[in-house]
Write a structure and sequence with these properties.
alpha/beta; 6-stranded parallel beta sheet; globular; about 15% strand; about 750 residues
Length: about 750
C-alpha cells in the first residue's frame, strides 16, 4: 500500500501537482502539514528531486521542527539537506554568508524587541526629541510597518508630503538604521529587508539561490507581509515551482503587518496558478464546523470554501448569557469542574478570550476551586531577564561592536557603575568614532570618569579575560566561568527567594541547552550558538507550551491559533468585547472582518464541545456597560446552537432595554434576542456633540488608536468631523460623538 493512499482526493492532487505555482487553500484541521510533508516525499522519491533543491518556510520554530521530523521519518537519509525553517531563520542563514556585501560583518548581532527599545531611547535622546510626542514604541511600530512594506527611510520621507510628524519619523528611522549599522546589528525586520536588498543588488547571488531552491513551499501564507511576499517572489521567479499553503479565513495578524491580499490575489501575482481547496476537516464535529461556516460566510473578502467532516454530528454548540462577567466566569469554571468530575482531563479544556484583561476573573474562579491552570502569554525562555543577561555576556565576548549588550551587563551584577558614567563613556565613543567597548578599554583616557575609571578598567579586564578563556574552552565551560567570576549565580543563591530559585533553574536550563548544542554540532562555535538562539526569540506562546501539563489553559484567541482542544470555552461573546468597540466605531468593515476571522479561528479550535458565553453587564474602562450579544453568535444558524435562557431575567432585561448606555453608546434594544436585521452602527447611535473641549493642534486620546494631534475639525451639520494624526496608526477621520476623544492635559 502506498503512503499516498491514506490521503484524500484533494490532498493527493496537491501532493502530485509539483510543477508551476500552486495555491493550497487549507481550511482549519484539514491536514495541511500532512499534505506538505507528503509532497516533499513525493518530490524526492517519485520525481527524483534532490533534497538540496527544496525549501520549506514556516512561521514558527515549532511548525518547522514538526515538519522536519515528519519529513525525516518518511524520507530517511538525505532529509538533513532539506531547508525547513522560518522566514527569519532562512534569511539569517543567507545573510551570514553575504552580510559583508551590505557593509556588515558576517557575525552581526540580531536585536530583539528590548534591544530595539534601548537603542531607540538612545536615538531619541541624541536627537533631542520629546518622547511624549514621539514615544519609543510608537516610533518603532511605525518603522516596523515601513520595513514590512520594504520602505527605506528615504522611501518613507518621499511618502510624507508636508506632514511634520511623518517627516520626523523618517528622520528618526534614518538615525536608527545608522546606529544599527554602527553596532553591526540588525533587527528582525532587517533580516527580511536586507535579504531582499541583497538579492536585488546581486543578481548572481539571487541566481544561486534560485538554482538551489527549485521547489519552494510556504506554510501559513495568509500571514505573510509585503517584504515576505517580495522575498518569495524573487526566489520563485525563475522556476515558478511555488506551493503556498494557507487559509484566508484564518488571517488574523494584520496588526503585525500581515497582508491578506497576498493570498487573495495569488492567481494575479502568479498567472496560471492551480488552486486546490482542502475542505475535509479531521478535527471537529460537524455541528462545530456548521457553526464556523455560518459565521465566516458573512465575510466578503474571502475565497469560498466550506468545511465538512466524516466525524459524527456531535453536540450542538452551547451558548449561555449571564448577568455579569463574574457570573460568566463562575458558570464556565463550574462546568469545567463538572467535566473534570466526569473524568475529562484538565488539559483537554481551554478558555479562550479576545483580550488578555479577560483572564483575571477566570483566574480568580479557578483558584477558588483549586483547579490547576496555566496562562499562555507568548513569553519566550530567551526573553527572561537572567537569560538575556547571560546571553549579553556571551554576545560581548563574541562581538565587541554590540554596544547594547555591553551596556546591559556593565553593571550586572551591580558594580557601582551608574548611568552618568555610562553616558560619559558613550560621549567619548561618539567623539572618537569607536565602539562603546573600545571606549571602556580606554578608560584611562576619559578624564571625566574620575574615580569611576578604576571600576570601568576592572570591567574591561574581566571582558578581556573572558575572551581569552573562550579561545581555549568550550561554550559551556565559558558560561560556568562567567557565572563564577561575575558572582551572578551566587547572588541569586544568597537571595533565597522563590523567584531567585526559579531564575537559578532557568540558568541551569540554559547550561543544558548549551551542552545539547555542543553535543549535536561537529564544530560548535560561540557565534553559531548565538545565531541559533537569536532565532528562538521569535517564538510565540505556542512554541513554549509544555506538552505534558494537566492544566486548564487560558489564552487569547491569537495565541490559540494552531492549537486544538476537546472542549473549548469562548467567553465575552458580546458587542463591544468581541467584536471590540474600536472595530465597531472605526467605520472600516475590514476590521470587523478580521474580528470575524478571529472568531472563526476560536470556533475551529474545538474538537468535541464548544461553549460560548456572554455577560449582559460587564465592567469596561471603569464603567458598567450593558452589551448586546455578539453578532457572531447571531450568525450561527439556529439549528446548530443550543441557547440556555433564564426567562425571568430575560424579561427583566427587555423591560429595561431602552435605558441609556453611557460609555458604550448602546440604546433601545433587548438582550439575548436573535438579531432580525443586519448589524450596523445605527444600533449604537449617540447624541451628537454641540461643542468640543479641544481644537486643532491639541493632543487627544482615543480608546483604540491612542494619542494623536488634531489636524482638522469640520462641522458636518449633524456632528463634528474630526481628523487626527495618531502616533501609531496615522491619520483617521471620525465623528466626534463616536470618537469620544479626550484632551491630553
Amino acid at each position: 500500500m502506498s503512503i499516498y493512499d491514506a490521503l484524500n482526493k484533494e490532498q493527493r492532487e496537491a501532493v502530485f501537482c509539483t510543477e508551476g505555482p500552486l495555491l493550497m487553500l487549507a481550511g482549519a484541521g484539514t491536514g495541511k502539514t500532512r499534505s506538505l510533508t507528503h509532497r516533499i516525499v513525493y518530490l524526492i522519491e517519485e520525481k527524483g528531486v534532490n533534497p538540496w533543491n527544496i525549501l520549506a518556510i514556516t512561521f514558527t520554530n515549532k511548525a518547522a521542527d514538526e515538519m522536519r521530523e515528519r519529513a525525516a521519518s518518511l524520507v530517511g537519509p538525505g532529509s538533513e539537506n532539506l531547508w525547513i525553517s522560518t522566514f527569519h531563520a532562512t534569511c539569517s542563514r543567507i545573510l551570514r554568508r553575504y552580510a559583508d556585501l551590505l557593509g556588515y560583518n558576517r557575525s552581526f548581532t540580531i536585536y530583539d524587541a528590548n534591544d530595539q527599545k534601548s537603542l531607540m531611547k538612545e536615538v531619541l535622546k541624541a536627537m533631542k526629541i520629546d518622547t511624549k510626542q514621539f514615544p519609543e514604541k510608537a516610533v518603532l511600530s511605525a518603522i516596523s510597518a515601513a520595513k514590512d512594506e520594504c520602505k527605506s527611510p528615504l522611501d518613507l520621507r518621499n511618502d510624507c508630503g508636508d506632514n511634520y510628524r511623518d517627516i520626523r519619523i523618517s528622520e528618526i528611522y534614518e538615525e536608527y538604521q545608522k546606529r544599527l549599522k554602527e553596532n553591526d546589528a540588525m533587527d528582525f525586520d532587517d533580516l527580511l529587508v536586507k535579504t531582499v536588498e541583497l538579492f536585488q543588488a546581486n543578481p548572481d547571488i539571487l541566481d544561486y539561490y534560485q538554482e538551489r531552491f527549485r521547489y519552494i513551499m510556504v506554510d501559513e501564507y495568509q500571514d505573510t507581509n509585503t517584504v515576505q511576499f517580495m522575498l518569495v517572489k524573487l526566489l520563485a521567479s525563475k522556476y515558478r515551482n511555488l506551493c503556498v499553503v494557507g487559509d484566508d479565513d484564518q488571517s488574523i495578524y494584520r496588526f503585525r503587518g500581515a497582508n491578506i491580499f497576498n493570498i487573495l490575489n495569488f492567481e494575479k501575482y502568479f498567472p496560471g496558478a492551480h488552486v486546490i481547496r482542502l475542505e475535509q476537516n479531521y478535527r471537529s464535529t460537524q455541528n462545530i464546523l456548521n457553526a464556523a461556516n455560518g459565521v465566516i460566510v458573512n465575510n466578503k473578502g474571502r475565497k469560498e470554501k466550506k468545511l465538512w467532516t466524516e466525524n459524527a454530528p456531535g453536540e450542538l454548540v452551547h451558548f449561555k448569557q449571564y448577568d455579569s462577567e463574574y457570573d460568566e466566569a463562575e458558570g464556565v469554571v463550574s462546568y469545567i469542574n463538572f467535566l473534570a468530575m466526569r473524568g475529562v482531563p484538565y488539559e483537554d479544556m481551554a478558555i479562550l478570550y479576545r483580550t488578555n484583561a479577560q483572564s483575571r476573573i477566570f483566574e480568580e474562579k479557578l483558584k477558588q476551586r483549586a483547579i490547576p491552570y496555566a496562562i499562555v502569554r507568548g513569553i519566550s525562555f530567551y526573553d527572561r531577564k537572567e537569560i538575556k543577561d547571560l546571553m549579553a555576556y556571551l554576545k560581548v565576548v563574541d562581538n565587541g561592536n554590540d554596544d547594547l549588550a555591553v551596556k546591559r551587563i556593565i553593571n550586572v551584577p551591580k558594580r557601582g557603575i551608574g548611568q552618568t558614567t555610562v553616558d560619559r563613556i558613550q560621549n567619548y565613543a561618539i567623539l572618537h568614532q569607536i565602539s562603546f567597548l573600545e571606549a571602556v578599554f580606554r578608560a584611562d583616557s576619559i578624564t571625566e570618569l574620575g574615580r569611576s575609571a578604576s571600576k570601568i578598567k576592572k570591567f574591561g579586564e574581566m571582558i578581556r579575560d573572558f575572551r581569552e578563556y573562550a579561545m581555549e574552552n568550550d561554550i559551556s565551560e565559558l558560561m560556568l566561568y562567567i557565572l563564577d567570576v561575575t558572582g551572578y549565580k551566587n547572588e541569586l543563591e544568597m537571595e533565597g527567594t522563590d523567584e531567585a530559585r526559579s531564575r537559578l533553574e532557568d540558568i541551569d536550563e540554559l547550561i543544558n541547552d548549551i551542552v545539547y548544542f555542543e553535543e549535536n554540532n561537529e564544530e560548535p562555535t560561540l557565534t553559531d550558538f548565538l545565531v541559533e538562539k537569536d532565532m528562538y526569540t521569535l517564538n510565540a506562546g505556542i512554541d513554549n507550551l509544555e506538552e505534558s501539563s494537566n492544566k486548564v489553559l487560558l489564552m487569547t484567541l491569537h495565541n490559540a491559533k494552531g492549537l486544538e482542544f476537546a472542549n473549548v470555552f469562548l467567553g465575552g461573546m458580546e458587542e463591544g468585547v468581541f467584536p471590540g468597540y474600536g472595530a465597531m466605531i472605526s467605520g472600516d468593515e475590514s476590521e470587523i472582518e478580521e474580528e470575524r476571522r478571529l472568531c472563526y479561528v476560536g470556533i475551529t479550535r474545538a474538537k468535541e464541545r464548544l461553549y460560548l458565553s456572554a455577560a449582559r453587564r460587564r465592567m469596561q474602562r471603569g464603567q458598567a456597560q450593558y452589551n448586546r450579544v455578539s453578532r457572531f453568535v447571531d450568525e450561527i444558524p439556529e439549528e446548530y446552537l443550543d441557547r440556555a435562557k433564564k426567562k425571568t431575567v430575560q424579561e427583566k432585561v427587555e423591560q429595561t432595554g431602552s435605558r441609556s448606555m453611557a460609555g458604550a453608546g448602546f440604546r433601545n434594544y433587548s438582550y439575548g434576542t436573535r438579531g432580525k436585521k443586519p448589524y450596523s452602527l445605527d444600533d449604537y447611535k449617540v447624541k451628537p456633540l454641540s461643542s468640543l473641549d479641544y481644537g486643532v493642534g491639541d493632543r487627544v486620546k482615543h480608546i483604540k488608536f491612542g494619542e494623536g494631534t488634531v489636524v482638522d475639525i469640520v462641522h458636518g451639520g449633524k456632528d463634528f468631523e474630526v481628523s487626527v494624526d495618531f502616533d501609531r496608526v496615522g491619520r483617521k477621520k471620525m465623528f466626534a460623538s463616536f470618537a469620544k476623544l479626550k484632551k491630553v492635559k
